[in-house]
Amino acid sequence: MITINPCSAELPGVLGETMPFLCDGTLITLQSAIGGSVLAIALPVGLMATSRHRGVRAVARVYMEFFRGTSVLVQLFWLFYAMPLLTGFQLDKIFAGVLALGLNLGAYGSEVVRGAVRAVPRGQREAAVALNFSPFQRMRYVVLPQAFVEMVPPMNNLLIELLKATSLLSAITVADLAYEGRLLVNSGSDQLIVFALLLAIYFLLSYLITLLMRFVERRAARMVGRERPRRRAARAAEAAR
Amino acid sequence: MIWDWDWTLEILPGLLTQGLLVTLQATLGGAVLAFVLGLFVALLRRSRRPYISRPVGAISEFIRGTPLLVQLFVLYYVMPDFGVRMTALTTGIIGLGVHYASYTSEVYRAGIDGVPKGQWEAAIALNLPRRWTWIGVILPQAVRRSLPALGNYLVAIFKESPQLSVITVVDVIGLARELGSERFRYLEPMTVAGLFFLLIAIPASILIRRMERRLDT
């Protein structure tokens, strides 16, 4: 059996010359995307924005407006170049990048969480109150599982935005995919091929995210007893046969 | 005090005029391109001929799935090989426009889908030609529905325009980097530049939210 390693240097021509570097870059890109999305798990802030207490809501709103008001690149530059002068300590560049990504996309994610939680029908909460659920139980067993299903598709878009935003880390010399690509071009590799490979890898990664999130969405929908209509129709047709 | 007020006042006029001007040029140019191109993409994706709708759809998905930064690299480094020479700013405007056209086309699509079915049926009942159904009936309603979301993308394009500084466009952020590298001190220019973005983007998005609410009712 022949196994083909897409990262090996023995691939023919330009591929062998460039792929090992691009694979290194892909790893860094994935690391920062995963780091950023872990940070961006925005559940607490999004829930804060639906709080009954005015102060809590205000804190959440300020965070969300502030980080949605500027782009990742600006925040990144500020964290990496400006903050060290102000506070006296320099962040490691990958850490600064992950922090900027997480805080920025987290603000967008909070908005998604807030919208999904508010979209849960009132009657669901009232029923939970009638059943004498505590506020925590109400959130955990009634509201969140239903809100989660609604959250998944917009979260999918956000994760793709996050993946694309990791390319900005190359501007502060993090050796991610975009950075490796530029380095290869500068050192004389065929730029058309290198950029085509870059685009292809990014697209592949965002496609993988979509596949993963579709799976998550189906599971989440099944757990609250909902199934996507198309699926159910397909299964009914199968059963009839 | 770490903050150098004298220097801040010295660099402020440059950032406000020269830098902000380039940022606004990039934003408006990119937005106009994105809004026009997006409409065409949305219409082409609805074409009844699969050899038109499929490739347009695939290209638009591809553009949406890859980073703007890499697309800018392609435009900036590869296009000259094919004999297309443009200034960095023009390249940037095209990059922003094409990238966001793939987003705005979705906005228009939702707007078109939101036009009630009765409007289509009425156009058929009146024996309106297909072209006039689009121009006179569907599009005016669809575009009106799309306006708030397009406004959001205008703000998004404004916020993402600093990416052009990576391909040597001297916008607010590009200028701030230049000024910072002169003294190797980025605190003041970067903070001022960041504040510009906040000061413009936050009121703009509040305004759009208000518009959204008005169009809803």
Automatic annotation (TrEMBL), chain A:
InterPro entries with a match to the protein in the record: AA_ABC_transptr_permease_3TM (IPR010065), ArtM/GltK/GlnP/TcyL/YhdX-like (IPR043429), Ectoine_EhuC (IPR014342), MetI-like (IPR000515), MetI-like_sf (IPR035906)
UniProt entry tagged with the keyword GTP-binding: no
Topology within the bilayer: Multi-pass membrane protein
Protein's GO biological process: amino acid transport
GO molecular function, a single term: transmembrane transporter activity
Protein name, as recorded: Amino acid ABC transporter membrane protein 1, PAAT family
Keyword vocabulary terms for this entry: Amino-acid transport, Cell membrane, Membrane, Transmembrane, Transmembrane helix, Transport
Compartmental location: Cell membrane
Keyword Transcription: no
Organism expressing this protein natively: Microbispora rosea
PANTHER family, per database record: L-CYSTINE TRANSPORT SYSTEM PERMEASE PROTEIN TCYL, MEMBRANE COMPONENT OF AMINO ACID ABC TRANSPORTER
Ranges that cross the membrane: 28-50, 62-82, 191-216
Domain of life: Bacteria
ABC transmembrane type-1 domain span: 26-210
A GO term from the CC aspect: ATP-binding cassette (ABC) transporter complex
Family: Belongs to the binding-protein-dependent transport system permease family.
TrEMBL record, chain B:
Record's bilayer topology term: Multi-pass membrane protein
InterPro entries: AA_ABC_transptr_permease_3TM, ArtM/GltK/GlnP/TcyL/YhdX-like, Ectoine_EhuD, MetI-like, MetI-like_sf
Gene Ontology, cellular component aspect: ATP-binding cassette (ABC) transporter complex
UniProt key word Membrane: yes
Keyword field: Amino-acid transport, Cell membrane, Membrane, Transmembrane, Transmembrane helix, Transport
One Pfam family matching this protein: BPD_transp_1
Family assignment from sequence similarity: Belongs to the binding-protein-dependent transport system permease family.
Protein name, as recorded: Polar amino acid transport system permease protein
Protein's organism: Microbispora rosea
Taxon lineage: Bacteria, Bacillati, Actinomycetota, Actinomycetes, Streptosporangiales
